[in-house]
From TrEMBL:
Gene3D superfamilies: Glycosidases
Active site residues of this protein: E378
InterPro entries noted in UniProt: GH, GH_1_N_CS, Glyco_hydro_1, Glyco_hydro_1_AS
A GO term, aspect molecular function: hydrolase activity
Keywords assigned: Glycosidase, Hydrolase
Cleaved signal peptide residues: none
Coiled-coil ranges per UniProt: none
Keyword match Ribosomal protein: no
Record-stated family: Belongs to the glycosyl hydrolase 1 family.
The name this protein goes by in its record: Glycoside hydrolase family 1 protein
Protein origin, superkingdom: Bacteria
């Protein structure tokens, strides 16, 4: 018996706004990602009261504008993925390449032709495309003029976008996801909902209304896809952070249960089960919102119920520990969800606590709750890589991180979990979403570019490149 099933989808993951560059080429419009400044102050700026989505190139740098120039070098990059043996490649379609402002009725053919070429290049190398329809790259016009996803009009705009790309690529792309890390809005709605404090992002009612509008839009995409081709697999995508109580105090256990329900399960309950969970009224009420306050129709609820997703895609980087009884507990960072320091875990250079066993728990918790196939579409270690004088990069720390997480995946499969595939994040170095840095590297492939935009952009293989190649070649047997 092998650790992983035959046909397991080994690969890697990226996002258009973090690697493509060419932010204003061939008719592309400006996205919310294009006005996010680079550097550790990125979230501080986006979270301020007066940020209004303005571009200020005199004050900030914008590394997403250039990315790693994948727009021009995608053939070179995909050839490297093929050399590693990728079975699949998860990428996103930039909404602003297809509808530059988001509310047009006619798509931009030049943008579609770029993804024609990208998808064909994948297929040429026998790499299965896995497409995220919307990955933190809403058209800026929709954020500024419509107020982001709290505005119900965005359902129509997203439906048009989804219909265009699904119709165009349904014969070539089997695996899709509707929104990236949809639950991230619980803590930071700027990325996935296009809402900042100056446009209502600080009001929980707006966040929940935006979620509902996204749930409706997602179900419309599922409906369109399944009507085009019943074999299409269309999933949701969330951040998952396994959550522990810091101790056995029942008060902390209850706080942990609530965080699990609200962050890890709320969005998936709606998108997988097709209905709002029983704890919805309590969750809203504790934040001064009533379900009846929201703009929700019977037709919406029927659509959500009928057109649920086929699988759950999720990112897993770290776990979270919870306490409400220790006021002086050390706080730690995480993927939009922090927590308190877990004394049993080590942390990355960015403070994210490393917990492979937490991935096994995550897989079991999700599968036992939903009995729906799972797909780990992001996982990895952001680290500073040193290039030696001979050009080699000995990233054993990354190999160790990934090995331990793949071992946890194998254990979960042995537990009975239906796991479709694994696409580590940032398989090639790209611009960090949280900080806009290049120095926070995840890739198997090094890109010669620093945080100030200096470098040749030459690609080179890290030690982890050949290691992962062997993992794929042996279907996870050789770690």
């Amino acid at each position: 018996m092998t650790k992983f099933p035959k046909g397991f989808l080994w690969g890697g993951a990226t996002a258009a706004n973090q690697l493509e560059g060419g932010y204003d080429r061939d008719g592309k419009g400006i996205s919310v990602a294009d006005v996010m400044p680079g550097g550790k102050i990125r979230f501080q700026v986006l979270g301020s009261e007066d940020f209004d989505w303005s571009l200020d190139q005199d004050k900030y740098i914008y590394p997403n504008h250039r990315g790693i120039e994948h727009y021009d070098r995608f053939k070179e990059d995909i050839a490297l993925f093929a050399e590693m043996g990728f079975k699949c490649y998860r990428f996103s379609i930039a909404w602003t390449r297809i509808f530059p402002k988001g509310d047009e009725t006619t798509p931009n053919e030049a943008g579609l032709k770029f993804y024609d070429a990208l998808i064909d290049e994948c297929l040429k190398h026998d790499i299965e495309p896995v497409v995220t329809i919307s990955h933190y790259e809403m058209p800026l016009h929709l954020a500024k003029e419509y107020g982001g996803w709290k505005n119900r009009q965005l359902i129509e705009f997203y439906e048009r976008f989804a219909k265009v790309v699904l119709e165009r690529y349904q014969s070539k792309v089997k695996y899709w996801m509707t929104f990236n890390e949809i639950n991230s809005a619980f803590h930071f709605p700027a990325l996935s909902q296009g809402m900042v404090k100056s446009t209502g992002g600080g009001d929980f009612k707006n966040i929940v209304q935006a979620w509902h509008n996204q749930f409706v839009a997602s179900s419309k995409a599922v409906k369109i896809g399944h009507e085009l081709n019943p074999d299409l697999q269309i999933g949701c995508m969330i951040i998952y952070a396994t959550t522990y109580s810091i101790d056995a105090n029942p008060v902390n256990q209850l706080a942990t249960m609530k965080q699990n329900q609200e962050f890890n399960f709320f969005c998936t309950d709606v998108q997988v089960r097709g209905e709002y969970p029983a704890f919805t009224d309590r969750m809203l009420g504790e934040r001064g919102v009533a379900f009846s306050d929201l703009e929700i129709t019977d037709e919406d609820l029927a659509l959500i119920k009928e057109h649920t997703v086929d699988y759950i895609g999720f990112s897993y980087y770290m776990s979270s520990a919870v306490t409400v009884t220790e006021e002086d507990a050390d706080e730690v960072a995480g993927n939009l969800l922090g927590g308190v320091r877990n004394p049993f875990l080590e942390a990355s250079a960015w403070g994210w606590q490393i917990d492979p066993e937490g991935l096994r728990l995550a897989l079991n918790e999700l599968y036992n709750r939903y009995q729906t196939p799972l797909f780990i579409v992001e996982n990895g270690l952001g680290a500073i890589d040193e290039v030696k004088e001979d050009g080699t990069i000995e990233d054993d720390y990354r190999i160790d991180y990934l090995r331990r997480h793949i071992e946890a995946m194998a254990d979960a499969v042995a537990d009975g979990v239906d796991l479709m595939g694994y696409t580590p994040w940032g398989c090639i170095d790209l611009v960090s979403a949280s900080t806009g840095e290049m120095s926070k590297r995840y890739g198997f492939i090094y890109v010669d570019l620093d945080d100030e935009g200096n470098g040749t952009l030459d690609r080179s293989k890290k030690k982890s490149f050949d290691w992962y190649k062997e993992v794929i070649a042996t279907n996870g047997e050789q770690l």
